[in-house]
Fold this protein.
Amino acid sequence: MASPTVLIDESALQTRIRELAAEIRAALPHDDIHFVCVLKGAFMFMADLVRAMDQRVSMDFIAVSSYGSGTSTSGEVRLVKDVDASLEGRHVVIIEDIVDTGLTLHYLQDILRRRGPASLHTACLLSKPARRKIDVHVDFVGFTIEDRFVVGFGLDYGETYRNLPYIGLLN
Ligand code: IMP
Ligand code: MG
């Protein structure tokens, strides 16, 4: 199995994630930010982001399915695992790996907003604006990339490559 070509290396990711943590801290100067990680793709981003935060935080996990095992979207979003705790009155930040068509985030923002959070923000490690099908607001974006299928740092192709410490392109 050939290694993917590096698009964003480990040190660039770590530098940008520390910057994002500072941006989030500046926008939400509360001591009680509640991070909701979108499984599975955002697990690595979440792990590094929360370690770069220095205030008290809490976290939960949600899982949706929008893709089959390939590289094209079905356009249908389904809730696979809900969060465990109530979001009522909390400062919630959704942590997502990538915003592509925007359908997944639009769905998530919609259902989580209805849970009555005090505030709802979204942080995405990557954004592919060329692919957007729906206008979705993302407060914190790590990197804007071209319309290429990427893997690594949580992102998969058929469940492989999630463990790569960098963002890569399949050849
Ligand atoms: P959207 O609903 O089209 O915005 O897609 C969001 C989801 O599709 C992300 O959470 C990813 O799981 C997946 N996805 C989109 N683009 C890529 C990619 O380039 N590589 C891996 N997964 C992707
Ligand atoms: Mg995902």
